[in-house]
Design brief:
Length: 421
Amino acid sequence: MRRFWLQRKLTKVIPFFSTLIILVYVCTIVFSNEDDSRLNTLGSMFVRPRLTIKHGINCSAIYDMEPVEVQKSLVVRKSYVGPSDKNVVNATSDCDRFVVSDGFDAIQGSEFEREFPLAYSLVVHKNADLVERLLRAIYMPHNVYCIHYDQKSSDDFKSAMQGLTRCLPNVFIASKLERVQYADISRLKAELNCLSDLMESEVKWKYIINLCGQDFPLRTNAELVSDLKMLKGKNMMESKRPGEKKQRWSFHHALKNDKAEYHEYPVRTSEEKPPPPHNIEMFVGSAYFTLSREFVLFVQRSPLATDFLSWSEDTYSPDEHFWATLVRVPGVPGEVLRSDPDITELHSKTHLVKWSYLEENLYPPCTGEHIRAVCVYGAAELRWLLNYGHWFANKVDPNIDPILIECLEEKLLEKRLISKS
Ligand SMILES: *[C@@H]1O[C@H](CO)[C@@H](O)[C@H](O)[C@H]1NC(C)=O
Ligand SMILES: *[C@@H]1O[C@H](CO)[C@@H](O)[C@H](O)[C@H]1NC(C)=O
């Protein structure tokens, strides 16, 4: 009896003290220092040596697009060498040390965030260090994270991912792993494997977001939660009339070997395909989504969705029509009416992608580099990215611009600390 009483007393007292300690901690960071030392204090909360500190680069000035500061970032680009996959394997070999040294133990959500848990599906295949940075930027101990790595990934990369999941209890590897081929059904299956594992999780998440290894958040978890609450059970994704893209499912596609960049990819044959089952009306979008738990449950249980998936097996890039089409099926949770206008990438806030052929028209030019018509962002886009209103940036790569990622990390951390104080 006495012990029970003591336990109850303790469970009341411990949260009180830890809140007090966190408050004191946050206050010292936010109030105790002048501008100069503020940067250093923020810096000391980061894991790796900060290039911004080493080279005296001020992220607020980058945000203000001051030419001298942007120029400095261009110089740093050339000399960047990031940690290897082996380094991540090594870092995660001692978990007690890793969660502290890499800052995961210091992350805590507010009550508001904890009552609205999120799930993430990360389909990744290389650059373990960047995956770890992405994970840290979206990490909350009350959320849940599924990592699907490619069967073709290197052994070091696989070990690094296993290391991360060993150290973080709410991060796991998908129970079934695919050999992911470009534009092929395997990409969609990787996602579905994570989705069904996440449905089994004891975390009763409200929404799921899918990311790839070159995404980076533009919103804190708290900001994301308040945006998601406003969706009121709707899903967030592109869904447009197909136009020319009809070709993708009018013919049977077969995997072909490609000596160039991708190992294999689906190629159109002359064999015509029957129309989709159940009179499904086709729409196209992107592979990225934010889905409600109810919608995922529908996809798992509905024979229509299962039939549609098997019909999609031999289509081109099925992940770009699977979700966009299912969300328009009459009666689904969070349905978008078939008669509703197109939902384009400007309306769907999940991912901010900059296409080379829309630059100048829709947005300012890329200040990083293009990879297959997609911009890999540079530091001078920091302000544009953070103010656009979308949730995740695609693509980032420290080998193209390490300063952009550091400044995104810094700005997000600032926002998190300010909203807490
Ligand atoms: C960083 O830049 C901002 C805005 O340009 C400026 O207000 C601030 O004083 C600078 N901080 C340091 C430490 O130089
Ligand atoms: C492995 O980690 C230890 C301790 O964290 C460190 O001293 C050592 O240099 C690391 N080795 C490599 C190859 O990263």
